[in-house]
UniProtKB/TrEMBL annotation:
It comes from the Bacteria. The chain holds residues 768 to 1021 of 1021 of the full protein. It is found in: Cell inner membrane. This is cyclic-guanylate-specific phosphodiesterase. Coiled coil: none annotated. It comes from Halopseudomonas salegens. Residues 1-254 form the EAL domain.
Length: 254
């Protein structure tokens, strides 16, 4: 209960920030994008993970306002970077389940793009499989409207949803993000490596971009490049960082 009230105040108190984690292409090692990650510095508890507070925000009806803050802040940052000549090609923004099914999301995205004069092609929205499959008809309608705005859609935590794959051909999806639980054991050359190989092949044949997340070692990076993964993200390549430090670190590489 205390956390709920603190969360309500946090929006007013400016206690949220976004950190940015770089993404690179495997072929040339170029910086191709970043994922915006929400952070909350609690006055007493210190940093609280979004894995903890996002579900609470959903429960207490705060996710619409918080999600809108994330969209606005991410778009403003991207516009500021572009104005400063730091042209990040793509910024990925996470959406929660409730945020996705509540009315108003498409309008919020459109408004943030317009407010900050953002090219929609610079924005990717990340959704998990479970969100996508909750209400197939509603999801299809919302994805089509987002697609019509020109933003792209990524399936986050791909492979952990125990779901049908048929949605991949029906929904307007651009990117698969292979969950980091598949990446961790990949350099041991067992079934996990073959699973990742199969996901990459699946993405290739459906013309989806494939990003591996949670890359923590040089060996994992090398294996993913051998497997022809498109892009990589993870602590080995760069931790999530405050906007002020993002470019200096991201451009220096691993
Ligand atoms: O960044 P971290 O590993 O602490 O993230 C934990 C979880 O919180 C992840 O599932 C991530 O997708 C989610 N998350 C991070 N930032 C956001 C955000 O801005 N909005 C939503 N809805 N979820 C986020
Ligand atoms: O569910 P999602 O993929 O959005 O989660 C993103 C979270 O993963 C972020 O909180 C981020 O801090 C975390 N993360 C990013 N890179 C790595 C990594 O290489 N290893 C681990 N363990 N976590 C990572
Ligand atoms: Mn994500
Ligand atoms: Na993930």
């Amino acid at each position: 209960l205390a956390l709920e009230n603190d969360l309500r105040r946090a929006l007013l108190d400016n206690a949220f920030t976004l950190h940015y984690q770089p993404q690179f292409d495997c072929l040339e090692g170029r910086l191709v994008g970043a994922e915006a990650l929400l952070r909350w510095q609690h006055p007493q508890r210190g940093a609280v993970s979004p894995a903890v507070f996002v579900p609470i925000a959903e429960e207490i009806g705060l996710i619409g306002a918080l999600g809108d803050w994330v969209l606005d802040t991410a778009c403003r940052q991207l516009a500021d970077w572009h104005a400063a000549g730091q042209k990040l090609p793509r910024l990925a923004i996470n959406l929660s389940g409730r945020q996705f099914i509540e009315g108003g999301l498409v309008e919020q995205v459109a408004a943030a793009l317009q407010r900050h004069a953002i090219n929609p092609q610079w924005i990717e929205l990340e959704l998990t499989e479970s969100i996508l499959l909750d209400d197939v008809v509603g999801t299809m309608r919302t994805l089509r409207r987002l697609n019509a705005l020109g933003v792209s859609i990524a399936v986050d935590d791909f492979g952990t949803g125990y779901s049908s794959l048929s949605y991949l051909k029906d929904f307007p999806i651009d990117t698969l993000k292979i969950d980091r639980s598949f990446i961790a054991p990949i350099d041991q050359d067992g079934a996990d490596a073959r699973l990742v190989e199969a996901i990459i092949a699946l993405g290739r044949s459906l013309r989806l971009r494939v990003i591996a997340e949670g890359v923590e070692t040089q060996a994992q990076l090398q294996r993913l490049c051998e497997l022809d993964c498109d892009e990589v993200q993870g602590f080995y390549l760069g931790h999530p960082l405050p906007a002020e430090r993002f470019f200096a670190v991201a451009l220096s590489g691993p």
